[in-house]
Specification:
The complex is a heterodimer of chains A (105) and B (459). Chain A is mainly alpha-helical and 105 residues long. Chain A has one domain: DsrC protein, C-terminal domain (Arc Repressor Mutant, subunit A), CATH 1.10.10.370. Chain A has five helices and two strands, in the order E-E-H-H-H-H-H. Chain B is an alpha/beta fold and 459 residues long. Chain B is 49% helix and 7% strand. Chain B has a four-stranded parallel beta sheet with strand order 2-1-3-4. The longest helix of chain B is centred in the middle third of the chain and has 19 residues. The chains are: A mainly alpha (105), B alpha/beta (459).
Chain lengths: 105, 459
C-alpha cells in the first residue's frame, strides 16, 4: 500500500496511485498529486478541469466523455495533454480524486 | 510472486464471486482443475500431449519476437502447463518423471504461469503456423481460468469484470450518464450535419440492438457517431441498451462463468427492447465471444447476430461516400482475422472511404497482434506492451508516410496510438472503420464541414 503525504498526514493510495477513500480528497491532495507530476502550482485551468470532473462525477458517478470534458471546459485535447500527464483520462481523474477509469482505454 | 501486473486483492475477487485458495491447498486444487479441464475440453489435453518442440511457433509469436524472452515462445509458455500435465496425467510422466519432460508442481511453476500466461495476447498466430495446429492461446486461456479459480488474476481485468457484472459495461456507466452522453453526442451530430440524428437508448420495439465497443461513450466517440450517421442514412430502427451497453465480455480472458453470464445478459438486453437482430460494434474479443462462444456455451439465441462491418458492407451501395484525401491501412484485429474470419468487410469499407489504401505485410489472418489484446491494457504493463507491439510497429513503419491506421477494435485503439508514439510515428492517427465512414458519408441536406480524418489520441 502506497501513501501520499499531505500536510503531514498520510493518504492511502491503491496500486494505481488513486485514492482508496474518495472522501480523503481536498485541494491539498490535488496539489500534492500535482507536485508528483512536477506541476509547481495548479493553474486556474487545472482547477477548472478538476472541479468540472468532480461535479460531473457527483451527478453521474462516472467521469465524462473526453469530448464533453473538452467542450465544456473550452480546452482542446492538446491543452489537456499539456495540463495533465498522462492525459486527461487518468491524470486529471487522479488529481480530481475520481476512481481510475476502467475499460479498453 | 512478482508478475508484471497488479494482482487482484481478495475483496475484489469476492465481488465477482471468486474465492481464494490457501497456499497449502494450491497444488491439489490446480491438479483437480486441470483434471476437470482435461475431461471437459478434449482439445486441451490433445494439445498438451502433442507438442514436439520444433520451434516453428517462435518466429510466429509477436510476444517472443518483441520481448526476446525465451519463456514467451508459445511452446515454452504452454510448456509450463504441459510439464505438469505430463507429470500428473500421463503414464510416461508418472513413470519417467523429468526424463519425459515432466515437472513437479511447485511455487516456481506457479509464478511462471501467472507471469507468462499474461504476456500472451491470445492472438492465436502460433496456431496458424504450428504443424499440429496447437493453439497455445487456448492453453493459455484454460491456464488463466485455473489461476482465476486459485484467486490469481490481474486487478485490471477483475475490476472490468466487476463493472460488466454490475452495469453491463466495462467502464461502469449507469443509465443517467448514458442518456447524458448520448444527448451530448446527438447535439454534436446536429452541429456537424444539421440533421436530427438519434442515438436511442432502451427504445422499445427496436428492430436492432446495437452493442458498440467498450469506450465508445468515453474516448472513441467518433466510432459511435459514425455508426449513428450510417444507421440514420440507411433508415435503421436501432437502439443502445442500458442493460448491456457494450459488446465486451472480459470473461473470455480469464473466467468461463463470467463469459456465460455476459452471454445471458446479451439475451436479456435484446429481449428488453424486442430486437430481432443484435449488431455488434468494433470490439474484437466481444465479437469472437458472440460469434463463437455464445450459442455454444449458453444455447441457441432467438435473434440474428451480425457484425456492424458486415452489416454496413452489405449495404455499401446505398451509401454515398466522398473519399477522404488520406493514405490509410487496416489493422486486422486477431479476433477478427484468426478468431472469426471477419476479413473482407473491413477492407471493402476502408477502401471505399479513402483515396489510398495500403495493406500491411503480412495481413489478414497472418497479421501481427497490436500487443494490447486479451486484457493486457493495464498501465503497469505499458513498457512490456510496447515490446509486445514491436512487430506491429515494424509493419506500420514500412508503410510510412501513412495518415491513418484503421483498427476496428477498442483494445487495438487503446494500444496502437501508444505504439505509434513509442516507435516515432506519432503523426499517424489511429481510429475505427466506422469513424472513417462517418467522415466520408455524404448525407442528405448536409452542411459538410472541412477537415480530414484524425483519430483518437486520447490517452
Amino acid at each position: 500500500m502506497t501513501h501520499l503525504k499531505v500536510n503531514g498526514k498520510l493518504i492511502e493510495l491503491n496500486d494505481d496511485g488513486f485514492l482508496v477513500h474518495p472522501e480523503d480528497w481536498s485541494e491539498d491532495v490535488a496539489r500534492a498529486y500535482g507536485a508528483l507530476e512536477n506541476i509547481a502550482e495548479l493553474s486556474e485551468e487545472h482547477w477548472k478541469v478538476i472541479y468540472y470532473l468532480r461535479d460531473y462525477y457527483e451527478r453521474f458517478r462516472i467521469a465524462p466523455m473526453i469530448r464533453k470534458l473538452c467542450k465544456d471546459t473550452g480546452l482542446n485535447m492538446k491543452e489537456m495533454e499539456h495540463l495533465f500527464t498522462p492525459g486527461p483520462l487518468k491524470g486529471a481523474c487522479r488529481l480530481a480524486g475520481l476512481p481510475k477509469p476502467a475499460g479498453c482505454l | 510472486m512478482n508478475p508484471p501486473f497488479h494482482l487482484a486483492k481478495k475483496e475484489d475477487l469476492k465481488h465477482i464471486g471468486i474465492g481464494q485458495v490457501d497456499d497449502s491447498a494450491i497444488k491439489a486444487r490446480t491438479l483437480k482443475l486441470m483434471d476437470e479441464f482435461r475431461k471437459f475440453s478434449r482439445s486441451f489435453s490433445a494439445m498438451l500431449e502433442t507438442c514436439t518442440r520444433c520451434g516453428t511457433c517462435a518466429n510466429a509469436c509477436h510476444s517472443y519476437l518483441g520481448t526476446d524472452d525465451f519463456n514467451n515462445i508459445p511452446a515454452a509458455r504452454a510448456g509450463y502447463l504441459r510439464a505438469i500435465f505430463t507429470r500428473y496425467f500421463t503414464w510416461y510422466g508418472r513413470l519417467f518423471r523429468r526424463f519425459s519432460g515432466a515437472r513437479e508442481f511447485d511455487d516456481d511453476t506457479l509464478c511462471s504461469l501467472v507471469s507468462y500466461f499474461y504476456q500472451c495476447n491470445a492472438c492465436r498466430r502460433c496456431a496458424l503456423y504450428c504443424p499440429f495446429g496447437i493453439d497455445t492461446a487456448e492453453i493459455v486461456l484454460a491456464g488463466r481460468n485455473i489461476l482465476t479459480s486459485l484467486g490469481l488474476a490481474p486487478s485490471f481485468i477483475v475490476s472490468i469484470a466487476r463493472n460488466e457484472i454490475l452495469t453491463g459495461n466495462n467502464t461502469g456507466i449507469l443509465k443517467p450518464a448514458i442518456i447524458d452522453s448520448c444527448s451530448f453526442l446527438e447535439e454534436e451530430l446536429r452541429g456537424e450535419t444539421g440533421l436530427d440524428i438519434k442515438i436511442p437508448v432502451d427504445k422499445p420495439d427496436s428492430e436492432i440492438l446495437y452493442l458498440p465497443s467498450s469506450s465508445e461513450l468515453f474516448t472513441n466517440v467518433d466510432t459511435l457517431m459514425g455508426a449513428a450517421k450510417v444507421f440514420h442514412h440507411l433508415g435503421v430502427d436501432w437502439t443502445l441498451s442500458s442493460v448491456m451497453l457494450e459488446a465486451a465480455n472480459y470473461g473470455l480472458h480469464f473466467d468461463l462463468e463470467i463469459l456465460k453470464k455476459q452471454n445471458r445478459r446479451m439475451r436479456v438486453a435484446a429481449a428488453a427492447v424486442g430486437a430481432r437482430k443484435v449488431i455488434q460494434g468494433e470490439c474484437g474479443h466481444g465479437w469472437r465471444v458472440a460469434r463463437m462462444y455464445s450459442e455454444g456455451a449458453d444455447g441457441p439465441v432467438n435473434f440474428q447476430l451480425e457484425h456492424v462491418l458486415d452489416f454496413v458492407a452489405a449495404r455499401l451501395q446505398r451509401l454515398s461516400l466522398s473519399r477522404l484525401p488520406i493514405r490509410a491501412t487496416l489493422h486486422d484485429s486477431c479476433n477478427y482475422g484468426r478468431g472469426t474470419g471477419l476479413l473482407d468487410s473491413p477492407r471493402l469499407l476502408v477502401r471505399a472511404c479513402v483515396e489510398e489504401f495500403v495493406e500491411m505485410t503480412p495481413n489478414r489472418e497472418r497479421n501481427f497482434c497490436c500487443g494490447g489484446g486479451s486484457g493486457l491494457l493495464m498501465d503497469e504493463m505499458k513498457d512490456l506492451r510496447m515490446q509486445l507491439g514491436k512487430m506491429k510497429a515494424g509493419q506500420i513503419k514500412d508503410l510510412q508516410p501513412l495518415d491513418y491506421v484503421a483498427a476496428p477494435c477498442a483494445s487495438c485503439k487503446a494500444q496502437l496510438p501508444l505504439v505509434l508514439k513509442h516507435y516515432g510515428m506519432g503523426d499517424t492517427a489511429c481510429g475505427g472503420v466506422m469513424d472513417l465512414l462517418g467522415r466520408a458519408l455524404v448525407m442528405d441536406n448536409e452542411r459538410r464541414i472541412e477537415g480530414n480524418a484524425t483519430g483518437n489520441h486520447v490517452k
